[in-house]
Amino acid sequence: MKGRPSPWLMLVAAMVAQVTETAIVSTPLLLIPHLHLDEGLSLVSAGALAAAPTVGTLLTLVAWGVVVDRVGERRSLVSGLLLLVAGCTITVAGARTDSIVLLAAGFFVCGVAAGSSNSASGRLVVGWFPAERRGLAMGIRQTGLPLGVGAAALVVPSWVQSRGLVSITVLCLVVAVAATAFIAATVVDPSRSTGEHADAIANPYRGDLRLTRIHAASALLVIPQYVVWTFMLLWLIDRHGWSAAAAGLLYAASQVLGAAGRIGAGWWSDRVADRLGPMRLVAVAATVVMLVLAVLDGSPVAVAIMVAATVITVADNGLAFTAVAEIAGPRWSGRAFGIQNTGQYLTAAAVPPVVGAVIQQAGYGWAFALAASFPLVAVFLVPVATDR
Questions:
Q1: Sign of CA dihedral 6, 8, 131, 21
Q2: pLDDT tens digit at each of 388 positions of the chain
């Protein structure tokens, strides 16, 4: 590509990578109703399959961060997407042979691949946008997660019922190939040669606890997010009697609203020139909404509360990532993103099987109440602007 590309084109490319990988690794989450209610797989086993891509991502996030710091965003994104194609190919083989083990292995590889976009797409956006527009740009980039989940929710539940599991895995493979071609044709690494000082190269964790506290708070805040993402579809079908198609539509619509919430949070942080204050308020709101959902679990109004929870519980993510990038600096942001995501995926990986067991033993209300305790702790972990 000749000349200087538009930062907005780079943002589009970052989102394509993030949406594609998120949609594919979210697919096993959305297969839980089919596997549990139609195929008779236990909720714990279905949850373990859903956790496979999360585990794959978790184990490789820091490594991907090192890779992107060393070789740049373009090579990292293209390499990750090629690996995603390989993982999707394995899932096709697993679906065709009716092998849950092979299916889980394929989604595990897809999870490994997804780690590339978590670091590289964030660095791509931070590198191409100035500080006064970075919160909004990162907020838009972070919509890739709810939009990816929402896109999968529109397709997977009804598709698997009408066309079967093999067809879903083939669709994932086709999407992965198309995204790889687009990223290879568009992405250009931002320049790192200007504006870098010695303090940007030094280890940002040395003598400064802000990054560590943000990582810890984010790891806790992702728990209610994954409780909602993992079990909303099943909750609507099992607890409130919705059809799979109707539940999938509401799930997708709520993800779009969640994406809008991330953009709004990023815009807000630009206006107040503060990422951490808004992040702390989001943690308070997440605690309240999960407690209300626990109390009203069986009532019709709980559906509206669940939609609100999908918006609130994802709003902190862009704020945390922007803060991490700004504190870590350009030479450390890839590794810092990797550490940030590792903490999040470590807790997220435990959500499907552990919360699935809580739901089986005690019900949805107790699971939602448990989820409310984690953002409450996060409120006190988020650093204030003057902390070092």
A1: negative
A2: 445 778 889 999 999 999 999 999 999 888 888 777 777 777 777 777 888 898 888 888 888 888 888 888 899 999 999 999 999 999 999 889 888 889 899 999 999 999 888 778 878 887 888 777 777 887 888 778 778 877 888 888 888 888 888 999 999 999 999 999 999 999 988 876 544 444 446 788 887 889 999 999 999 999 999 999 889 988 999 999 998 888 888 988 888 898 888 888 888 888 888 889 999 999 999 999 999 999 999 899 999 999 999 999 988 888 888 888 888 877 787 788 888 888 887 888 788 889 989 998 999 999 999 999 999 999 999 997 645 5
Half-sphere exposure of 13 (CA within 13 A, CB side): 27
Q: Residue 75, exposed/middle/buried by CB under 10 A (0-12, 13-18, 19+)?
A: middle
Take residue 246 and report the two structure tokens written for it.
């109707």
Residue 178, H or E segment: helix 165-186
Residue written as token pair 């394929």: 106
Amino acid at 171: L
Q: How far apart (Å, rounded) are the C-alpha atoms in residues 89 and 99?
A: 14
For tokens 């040395």, what's the residue?
206
DSSP string, 108-163: HHHHHHHHHHHHHHHHHHHHHS-HHHHHHHHHHHHTHHHHHHHHHHHHHHHHHHHH
CB–CB of 284/379 below 8 Å? Answer: yes
Q: Tokens standing for 114?
A: 């997804």
Q: How many Å apart are CA 204 and CA 192, to the nearest integer? A: 17
